[in-house]
Design a protein that fits this description.
The chain has 2 helices and 6 strands, in the order E-E-E-E-H-E-E-H. By secondary structure, it is mainly β. It comes from Candidatus Roizmanbacteria bacterium GW2011_GWC2_35_12.
Length: 158
């Protein structure tokens, strides 16, 4: 019987820099970003101590492109991924190792805008002329006034 294992990382932290989106020679998107997590505690003598951990995050393909569009330095992010370790030889010939989190999913916290809204300018960034017109009041129908109508599936908001 095969034993089961789990490699899962869940973090909530702040982006330490703007994401760096690149493409491999084969055309696959790869995005690297840094996330800082903070921890504070009180010692026995009553002093408050703080500790910061920095994490290297790597996203691939469509998720990488989303990171490049939606994330900016300082934003708070919830992320899920898996831990990976790599070894390589640096330019000076020294062996190096690196620990990364390969991103599986993320949620951006912050200004209250939905992810789809974050791709367009904030309402305050739009000129006055582009703001929507006032909404007309809807008429209320009683059950006896209802008539058959054709509903277009494209008109359904969900």
């Amino acid at each position: 019987m095969a034993s089961r294992s789990l490699n899962r990382v869940i973090l909530i932290g702040n982006l330490t820099r703007d994401p760096e989106l690149k493409y491999t020679p084969a055309g696959t998107a790869v995005c690297t970003l840094g996330v800082a997590t903070n921890r504070s505690w009180t010692t026995a003598d009553g002093t408050t101590k703080e500790d910061v951990q920095y994490h290297r995050i790597v996203a691939w393909q469509k998720l990488a492109e989303l990171c490049g569009k939606l994330l900016t330095k300082g934003r708070k992010i919830f992320l899920e991924g898996r831990l990976t370790y790599r070894s390589y030889t640096s330019n000076d010939g020294q062996p190096r190792s690196i620990t990364e989190i390969v991103l599986d999913d993320f949620i951006v916290f912050g200004d209250g805008r939905r992810a789809s809204d974050a791709l367009s300018p904030a309402p305050s960034d739009k000129p006055e002329a582009t703001k929507s017109a006032p909404v007309k009041e809807a008429s209320v129908e009683t059950p006896s006034e209802k008539t058959e109508e054709n509903i277009n599936p494209d008109d359904i908001p969900f």
